[in-house]
Design goal:
The protein is of the alpha/beta class. The chain has helices spanning 24-41, 59-72, 85-94, 127-139, 159-168, 175-181, 194-204, 232-240, 268-282, 296-303, 315-325, 348-360, 366-371, 391-401, 442-460, and strands spanning 3-6, 9-13, 48-53, 76-82, 99-103, 112-118, 153-155, 184-188, 208-212, 245-249, 256-259, 286-290, 308-311, 327-332, 336-338, 377-384, 406-408, 413-416, 421-426, 432-439. The protein folds into 3 domains: 3-157, 3-Layer(aba) Sandwich (Alpha-D-Glucose-1,6-Bisphosphate, Chain A, domain 3), CATH 3.40.120.10; 163-371, Alpha-D-Glucose-1,6-Bisphosphate, subunit A, domain 3 (Alpha-D-Glucose-1,6-Bisphosphate, Chain A, domain 3, 3-Layer(aba) Sandwich); 377-460, Alpha-D-phosphohexomutase, C-terminal domain (TATA-Binding Protein), CATH 3.30.310.50. The chain is built from 15 helices and 20 strands. Helix 7 (194-204) runs parallel beside helix 12 (348-360), helix 9 runs parallel beside helix 10 (296-303) and helix 9 crosses helix 12. The longest helix has 19 residues, at 442-460.
């Protein structure tokens, strides 16, 4: 069992001992630290925080603990109930709130839960803010309110519908064009809140929706990370139903994967590529993804005469670089679409609506669309090292070895070769180097990974 404290929040498994797992005591402690942080940094008589959760079994328990902790600090709560990460993100500024908390462990299995923390813009906190919250939690320097100053709860369960309306109002979303195509789509909602909100969006766009695992009971029918090895059921159902494609989201609906009409994976990396292709065709501009994402986004951006840049891994880093470069779309290769016209957060609803509109404007199947994009294949590996080995020294040595290539060291070491690339990153919590490679074929990506692994082992004396 595990408890992970980081600058982006607290995540852990339910049950067990205090400090080792996400117990009720740990949930209260971290919620107290977040509320105390808001009171220290925002000078207002009354603060307000938006809270929503995914459909995890532990959700109602953690939800009530967190809400009532904030009330004890004198903070008002807008309770969205069952919701999604992007829904909470758009609700925070709409409610003029001072922050937000999403209770979700994202793609982790059902025994996990987490508190994901937002600022007043509905965006994830900065690293510095996260560190301050961790310090407050460690010190337990909490000052709760007296009985006459407790916070109040306002329930608002309309935000999933509000979110859908906001997406449909985006200028590049054309529900009428989509409805004319009479698409048929299978949706795997992994028995969480995506099973409610994605079918609702599709129905309002005139799409026939075949539901698979859309009962929000928190009993995930498969590993909730939307990877090929977990998605056999929807791949088969898309073919059996003769559907145009399939949609898969994770429990909190910020990661989006498509299944092509032939039952094959469209590819998580290509969710962003396809949406960016459409957006750039209508509104030329710049794009951003993280350094471990596919080169295909760069190629598509160049095709539309835009400029592409890569950020350090992590949504907050992608958003920061998007703002600096005025990027009109960006995200991460794990199926996360960030479209500032809506908000600065990964949003599967935005991705679905843009993708459907893109497809409605084309005379091709989803499989044909995928085949039209640059073909890249990735290999993801890791090397476990002994604690005595200096990982930083290894990365420096690899940088020196390939100094004549295009090198980026903002997040580990990324080496861009003419036909492929490799990204080396160390873990913050264990002596591991992660090795991501991408090339024109799977065999080439695997071969490059093996070569780099051998070179790292030689440097490390393994």
């Amino acid at each position: 069992m595990t408890l992970i404290k980081s600058i982006s929040g607290i995540r852990g498994t339910i049950g067990g001992k205090v400090g080792d797992n996400l117990t009720p005591v740990d949930a209260v402690k971290f919620a107290s630290a977040y509320g105390t942080f808001l009171k220290k940094t925002i000078k207002k008589d009354k603060l307000k925080v938006v809270i929503g959760r995914d459909a995890r079994i532990s959700g109602p328990m953690i939800h009530n603990l967190v809400m009532n902790t904030l009330l004890g600090l004198g903070i008002d709560v807008i309770d969205l109930g069952l919701s999604t990460t992007p829904t909470v993100e758009i609700a925070v500024p709409m409610e003029a709130a001072d922050g937000g908390i999403i209770l979700t462990a994202s793609h982790n299995p059902k025994q996990w839960n987490a508190l994901k923390l937002l600022n007043a813009k509905g965006e994830f906190l900065s690293g510095k803010e996260g560190e301050l919250i961790l310090e407050i939690a460690e010190s337990e320097a909490f000052d709760f309110s007296d009985v006459d100053s407790l916070g109040e709860i306002t329930v608002n369960d309309a935000y999933m519908d509000i979110h859908i309306d906001e997406v449909l109002e985006l200028p590049l979303v054309d529900a009428e064009a989509v409805a004319k195509r009479k698409f048929k789509v299978v949706v795997d909602g992994v028995n969480s809140s995506g099973g409610i909100i994605i079918p609702k969006l599709l129905e309002q766009m005139g799409v026939e929706c075949v539901k698979l695992y859309c009962e929000p009971n928190g009993h995930f029918p498969h590993n909730p990370e939307p990877l090929k090895e977990h998605l056999g059921d929807i791949c088969k159902l898309v073919v059996d139903e003769k559907a145009d494609f399939g949609i898969v989201v994770d429990p909190d609906v910020d990661r989006l994967a498509f299944i092509s009409n032939d039952g094959e994976m469209f590819g998580e990396e290509y969710t962003l590529v396809a949406c960016a292709d459409y957006v750039l065709s209508k509104t030329p501009g710049n794009t951003v993804s993280n350094m471990s994402s596919s080169r295909a986004l760069r190629d598509i951006t160049n095709k539309h005469n835009g400029s592409y840049q890569a950020s350090a891994v992590g949504e907050v880093n992608v958003v920061e670089l998007m703002k600096k470069t005025n990027a009109i779309i960006g995200g991460e290769g794990n199926g996360g679409i960030i479209y500032p016209e809506s908000h600065y957060g990964r949003d599967s609803l935005v991705g679905v609506a843009l993708f459907l509109t893109h497809l409605a404007n084309l005379d091709m199947t989803v499989a044909e669309l995928r085949a039209s994009y640059p073909q890249y294949y990735m290999s993801k590996n890791k090397i476990e090292l002994t604690p005595q080995i200096d990982v930083d020294a290894i990365l420096v040595a690899m940088t020196e070895k390939y100094k004549n290539e295009e090198i980026n060291t903002i997040d580990g070491v990324k080496i861009d070769f003419a036909e492929n690339w490799v990204h080396l990153r160390k873990s913050n919590t264990e002596p591991i180097i992660r090795i991501y490679t991408e090339a024109g074929t799977q065999a080439e990506a695997d071969k490059l990974a093996l070569r780099i692994i051998d070179e790292i082992k030689a440097v490390a004396g393994l």
